[in-house]
Every structure is written in C-alpha cells, then in structure tokens.
DNA sequence: GATGAATGAGCGTTCATTCAT
DNA sequence: GATGAATGAACGCTCATTCAT
C-alpha cells in the first residue's frame, strides 16, 4: 500500500468510518427513544459534539434515518437473495431466512427497531419509497415461499397464507424489541427455538 | 327527540359521550402517526374544533393518552381475569386468552397500537406507572400458564418458557398493526387461525 | 316603603349589591396575585360560578379593575376634598390627609394595592386616563400643601418639596401591602405613629 | 482590536457579557411592564432577536428573573455586610445602610423594582426561596439595629420598632419607582435628603 | 342569571436547521 | 471539522371572551 493510497484512505475512508460511527450512535438513540421523540441535540451530545456540527456530516435528521435504514435493508436483502438462490426447498429456505433475520437483528438491532417502528410513517415521504418497496418484496417473497411450500407439501395444506405471512414477519422482527446482543441467548439459539415453535407448534408432538 | 330523552341525556352522560368520541378520534391519530408525532392541532382538526378547545375536555395531551390506555387496559384485564377464574385447563385458558386478546384488538385497535408502540416511553412517567405494572402482570400470567401447561403435559416439555411468552405476547398484539375491524377476517377467525399455528405449527401434522 | 318600591329595589339595588360583592372578590384576588397574573376563572371560582358567567355582570376583566379603582378613587377624593375645604392650616391638613389615607387603606385595602401596583400599566389605556389625572391632582395637592407649609413655617425651610412629596405619597400607600384590617394596629394608630415619624423623625427630640 | 484582545475576550467572557446585556434588557422590561405581563417576545424584540433565540442563552423566563434578582441581592448583601462589620454605632450604621440602598437603586434600578413588585409572587416557587430568606434577613437586620439604637439612645425611646422597620424598608425601596439614574438628583443627594427627613422629620427642628 | 362549549389570539418553549468564524 | 449564535416554524397550552341554551 503506497503512501499516496494511505493518504486517500485517511480522508475518504476515515470520513466513511466517522459517518458510520455517528450513524451507530444515532440509530441507538432513535431506537431507544423513537425517531420523532429524538432530538438531534441528543444525538450530538452522545457523539460529544454540538447539534450544529452534525450538519457537517449529514444533511438532515431524515438523511440519518435514511442512511441507517437503507444500509440495513441493503445488507438484509443481500443475505436474503443469497439464500433464495441457494435453497430451493421451501422448508430449508424458510429456516435459512428466519436464521438470517435473527442474524440481522443481532447485527443491526437499532436499525431493525427503527425499521419496525417508523417505516410506516417515513414511508410516506418519497425519499423513503424504498421502504414500501421493501415491504412489497418482503410480502412477495414470503407469500411465494409459503404458497410453494403448501403446494409441495412442506407446509400444512390448510394454511391461511396471507395470515401466516404476517405471523412470520411480525414474529421475527418484533423480537428486536427485547433481544440483547451478547445476552443469555445467541441469535442462532433464538432462531432455532422460534423455528421449532413456528414449525411444530407449542403443544406436544405425536412422537 | 322528546324532553324525557334530552333530560336523561344531558349533563353527565352527554359529556361522557363527547369525551369518548374525542378520545376515539385522538386514539386513531395517535395510533396512525405515533403519539409524539401527533400534534394536538391534528386531533382538534379531526374533531372539527380548534386546538385550545380540546382543553375544555382534557387536561393535556398526556391525559388523553392516559385515558385511552387505562380504559383499554381496564377492560382487557377484566376479560382476562374472568377467563383465569373460569378456565383451569392450561390449554383452554390459552385459547380463551388469545381469543380475548383478538377481541380487544377488534374493539380497541388504536389503543392497542398505542399501547404497543408507546408504552415503553410513556411508562417512564409516574402517571403511566400502571403500564409497567400491566406488563409485569402480563408476564406473570403467561409464564405461569405456560409453566403449568408444561408440567401438566398440555405443552411441549422442551418449551423455552420465557421465549415462548414473548413469542405469544408479540405475536398477538402486533396483529393490531394490520388488523382492520370489519375487514375480510373477523377477530374470531384470526384468533382460531393464529391458535392453530401456535399450537400445531405450520408444518403438516401427523394426523 | 310600598311594595312597588321594594320590587324596584330587589332588581336594581340587588344587582348593585351583587356587583359590589363580585368586585370585592375580584379586588381581593387582583391584589393578592396581581392583575395580569389573575385569571378571570380564579375570580369566578372564588365567586362560585363559571368564568363565562361573570360576563353577565361585567363587560371585561378590565372593566372590573376600572370599577374597583374608580370607586376607590371617587371615595378617596371626596374625603380629601372635604379636608382641604375644612383645614386651612398646613400642618393640620397634612395630619388629616394622612389619617384619611390610612382610613382608605383600612376600607379599600385591595383597591389600594391594585392602584399602587397596576396604575402605571393601566394608566396607558385611555379608559384609565383618570388614574393619571388622579396622580397629577395628588401631586398638586401635596406639593401645594408642602410649599405653603414651608412658607408659613409649618415645615422645615430647607425641605426638598418634590422629594418630600414622593416620600409622603409612597410611605403612606405602600403600607397597604402589609396592613391587615382588624390586626394588631388600627388604621388610626398606624396613622398617628407614621405622623410622628414623618413630622419629628426617628431620632430623639430635644424635649 | 488586537488579536490579544480578541483572545482574552472570546468564549467565557464574551458569553458572560452577552448574558449581562440581555439580562439588562430583560430587567428593564420586567420592571417597566411587570414580570407576568412581559412576554418573552417583547424582551427578544428589544434585544433584536427572535423569541426562541433567547433560549440559547437562558433556560426560561423564570431563570432570567432569577439571575437578575440573585445578582442584585448578592451585591446588595455584600455591601450591607461590609457596613454591619464596620459601623457599630446604630446611627452611623443606619446612615450607611440607607446610602448603600440608594446606591443599589442607582446601579440596579430595574432589579429593585422587580424585587419590590414580584418577590411576593415569585417567592412562592422553591427556586426563589432566597427571596423570602432575604426578607427575613432584612427584617432581622433592621429590627436589630433599631432596637439597639433605642436602647443606646440613638433613636426615640417611644419608637414602634416593627412599624418603623416597615417604614424604613418601604420608604427606601419604593424610591426605585421614580428615581432616574443620571437625573436631577444623584443617589447620594437623595440618600442624604431622605436621611434628614427620617431622622429629624419634616417639621422645623428646635435648632 | 348561569352553564357549557367553543373561539382565537397569544404565550413560553422546543427544535431542526443555517452559517460566519 | 467543529463552535456559537441565531432563525423560523411549530408545539402544547392558557385565557379572555362569546353565545346558544
């Protein structure tokens, strides 16, 4: 790595790193207090700077939420797309998607909380059109998967697919509200336990 | 309208009805936009009056949320308590509690949304201490029921009770976000379908 | 007194009596909390009615203050005028005026407090022009009396008349802030004690 | 302006000066219109800024009054305490205290007016408890001084001390309502004239 | 004479945002 | 990169006042 290269790094890359750091702080507070109830002064305080200084890094409060959410969704869909390409068996795909979702919660907890609590609102502004688009993709993915699973006998034939889709979607994301990365349960454990409940129910099986 | 009707109607009863009407409007908007993001002027607009006029009926924005939430929770716990007294079989109790929850969503949809989205923030103020108290009662109720069910063989012996409690709790209330009273699905239908998924899972049973 | 006469009394006179009663209540609160800081709801509460009901009796909050102050000033000037006609000796006139002022405090304490605290403000509105007029008359009366007294040897020849006027004026009225009718000191006692201090000073006399 | 000057000037000192400037403006208007009747917008207008901008400098309207009053009282008591330590003769102490009071009026006229007109109301809030404390200290100081003066023969033996205390207190402070710094009379002249009236009275002495 | 419900203006305060330094 | 001071719009709320009943 040439010195020239390192210099370029210490500007562009350092800037990127600082942005990410600030966004992490913002995401934590947005998730904790709610987007509307969070003041950018609170974010700035937590970052050890004055409110006005944040505007050197970001255009607006909205743009922070935007960057937090779009970063999260981009990464999420990358992992989903990888799974959808690899796993053709509905049951296996479902397992992998659920696991990937819990991994996302583990890695982007505040972003997930933000997504869950505020996407309805924010989605109304054109800037956040991708949130609604993501919802649609989400629904299509799950509904498609469930319908195929029913056809292929992986899932109960009497499944109410639209309802089951919402059941799955909500059940998974809502866990971000109580899951603590590094706590008693790892993302993987939670995922497996949830999967068992979802697939086999909570009453005793026949075996 | 006969004088008799007007007499019975006037004063206390009419006031109560007007308050309820206004609270209904407020609850709808709080649920739709979020409590913090809702302005008193939006509520007043929707009620066809000026912002200040709301203060003839209510002390503060907070007191509106308070009345919405406490009314809902009072009614909810009345129905829960009735069930807990009547149904001693864990499985039957669970079914009845889930059904009662969906009935509550049907009747108090905006209040449920408000409860779910804002109780964490509001609960910090002493005035809303009953929200946290309700959470605790909730947890104790479900955890107790699940543990008893496991002991008595009604539920899987390997159930992770704390996790299952959260699964049940979230799964049910989160439905308030999409459920439309008077839509395709009645509260009862949703409750029965959810119950089947929760009890038996989504994969085909052996029977 | 004919019945007809008594009927007329029970309308006009009763109305007058009620107004006076309400004005007494208002004056107490205006004096206690300050005019600007007093809400007409507080006055109405104290009178056992609703805020709106006061407007049956009075045009506005201002008109209450108006009536309180003008009633007080009319009576005050009546007593002053009587004295000025009777007492031609400066020293005797001064004594009588001071005594009359303390009598006014005794009988109209809240009005005096209101007068003292709010006349500067209220005087700016044309409706209260008589307040400024009264101030001028006041000053002319005292300054005239003091100058005559100096000329005639009743008061010190080196008296700074404008300053002494303010001294007398303030000294007397400000007592309304602590004087309690029916307390340890009667208006007359206070008047006599004040007079001694004003005339002879607080240091020991030669006698 | 040299850089040296600007450096010494900047940050803390400049901020303090700006605060003092704004407080001076606020004090003028509070004194002129009354605290309750003054709007924050009036203060901001006079300062050439918008209402909200004041909140960059001060927490609240109340905190402005607080700072104005506490600054004044601190300085006043410093001068009083110095006198009480130095002058042991009651008559000399009284003269010095009256003079110091007029000096305080000269330097803090609006603060004195505010103190006199609003301390009764403001004193009820815990934040302004020091106002009541100051009243008590005031009374103790004057009553103590007068009693000692009577015992030692400096003041008339028949003096009604509690009444004389109020007489002195009011007489002095009330002058803030008409005294104009830089006008015909200096604070010192007023003080001396007042003192003569207080000590020797307004009627001709025997000498 | 009084009530109950509302109006409309304005208040103290907050907050995202801007910008010269 | 960050600060300090300000803007301007809006917010929750208060209050004198009105008026049909």
Short description:
Chains A, B, C, D: Residues 39-58 bind DNA. Chain A has helices at residues 3-33, 40-47, 54-57, 61-86, 90-122, 129-151, 161-173, 187-200.
Shape of chain A: elongated
**Average pLDDT across residues of chain A?**
91
Helix-strand sequence of chain A: HHHHHHHH
Biggest beta sheet attributes of chain A: none
The level 1 CATH classification of the largest domain in chain A is: Mainly Alpha
Number of strands of chain A: 0
Radius of gyration of chain A equals 20 Å
Q: How many distinct helices of chain A?
A: 8
Largest interface: C-D, 40 and 39 residues
Structural class category of chain A: mainly alpha
Terminus-to-terminus distance of chain A: 61 Å
Number of domains of chain A: 2
Uncertain runs of chain A are none
Strand content of chain A: under 5%
- CATH arch. level architecture of the largest domain in chain A: Orthogonal Bundle
**Oligomeric grouping of the chains:** homotetramer
Protein name (chains A, B, C, D): AcrR family transcriptional regulator
DNA-binding region (chains A, B, C, D): 39-58
GO molecular function (chains A, B, C, D): DNA-binding transcription factor activity; transcription cis-regulatory region binding
InterPro entries (chains A, B, C, D): Homeodomain-like_sf (IPR009057), HTH-type_TetR-like_transc_reg (IPR050109), HTH_TetR (IPR001647), KstR2_TetR_C (IPR041490), Tet_transcr_reg_TetR-rel_C_sf (IPR036271)
